[in-house]
Amino acid sequence: MRSSRREASDLNSSRAKPDEIWASKFTVAKILEPMECNTHKLKLIRELIPANPTLNREQRNLFLSTYRSATLKKRNGLRILRAIAEQQRKSGKIDRAQKLEELKNILQVELFDLCTEVHMMIDKYLYPETMDANSNAFYLKMNADFYRYEYEFASEANQQELASKARECYLKAMHISKESLQRGSALSLSLSLNYSVFLYEVENQKKQAIDTAQNALDESGILVHDGNDDDYSEAATTQQLLRENITMWTRDEGE
Asked: How far apart are CA 60 and CA 105, in angstroms?
């Protein structure tokens, strides 16, 4: 009679492998993305990155979109609170302004914590494992972007250091882009877009910002569809954003 008892070897053979579990969790995070379940996505990604920091393009984009979405809500909230607090202060409603400042400080700490988390994951886990130019440029750009997010709401005492860190990451990424990335790729264009915004808004290098954006447009030329719909769509959208910024910045400089 065959025994119904299962031994340890039986359990091991039926148990999913760590790589399979890791991949399935990333799939869950991807499914959650359109549902805006950001808290659950953050929890999953916090578990996944240390376990296996070698991400493919789709996984890198999910990592970026999850943290960008989480920080965007806080950045928008901070801008609103800052504007309302200033209005209350001008109206002489000091108590209300102080309460809004307290809320702003809480939200600010939450934003900085998220940005610090991104820097830690990139510097400790992701960037050291990169083996190709696209990954290197992606993580350098992402690090720079999140330093820029912090800069907007940091104290004057901390802004210089944040600007310096962002500048260093952007310049390294731009060097990789120039040497190794395909002109007109979504990553190359988005890097030029965000670096030009940094130059304009943080460094106050307005002419250089316009030149950087214009050079990116000129070098990308007419986009050629290479079969990747997502990359083509993102590149086309980024080209349009570059054009809009150039138009707006040029107009502002002429006034």
From this structure: 30
Phi, psi of 53 (to 5 degrees): -85, 5
With contact defined as beta carbons under 8 Å apart, do 246 and 233 qualify? no
**Three-state DSSP class for residue 87:** helix
Residue type at position 101: E
From residue 40, give the alpha-carbon distance in Å to each of 27, 34, 37, 108, 123.
13, 12, 6, 21, 23
> Phi and psi of 223, rounded to 5°?
-65, 140
> Per-residue pLDDT tens for 96-141?
889 889 999 999 999 999 999 999 999 999 999 998 999 999 999 9
CA neighbor of 205 nearest in space, from 214, 195, 191: 195
Place of tokens 């316009």: 210
Of 104, 116, 114, 201, the closest CA to residue 152 belongs to 201
The Cα–Cα gap between 76 and 101 comes to 15
Write down the pTM of the prediction.
0.82
Q: Which domains are assigned to the chain?
A: 18-129 (1.20.190.20), 133-152+162-254 (1.20.190.20)
Dihedral angle sign, alpha carbons of residues 201, 207, 212, 213: positive
